[in-house]
Amino acid sequence: MRTVLILVPLCVAVACDDGSTETEPSEPAAIAETAEVEPAADEAPTAPAVATTTGFIEASVGGELKRFEYLEAAHNTAAANGTFLEARPSAESEESFKFALVNLDVREMDFPTSIRSNVRRMQMAGMNYWDAEGDGHPVVFNDDSLTCQSLESLLLRCTFSGTAHPDDGGPVAITDGRLEVQLTTDALRDRFIEGTSGAVRRPGTR
Q: What is the pTM of this model?
């Protein structure tokens, strides 16, 4: 009888095999399973897609035709403090046409119209062609060389030309310029701008 009392606890202690193949999952196995579904520490998060708009900006730069059709929505806007446009060949490219019409809101204009700088009204109209090497070719519109034909449902159509004066090298002719860009707006931003600085009246506005 004494021998039986000794063997029973020993059998329990070593989990004697009773012929069953079912076993309870151990805690280390559960941890390993959890680790398999977690992303790797060096896995980069997926970047959100950039919203784009439709259209193009094109011009001959020094006799070479450039036409860019990649337009980020946030960079092609009509706002209370001005109208801004940017077109590139692709999302990765550094080459671009950029327009800054400061304090010139095209939504407040009658068309067709020429858009030009007016220092007295603190209005600036200019564009810059940036080449693939990162060199700028700025143009300031002081005459009728930027003419916009229409704005229908925020689709802006204009023609432009000018002489760029890059930092390095001589003047560069920019000719046969055309743009057709679907602009975006932000009502909340407009209310903020008008509430802090006041709306600026533009030449040729209603």
A: 0.73
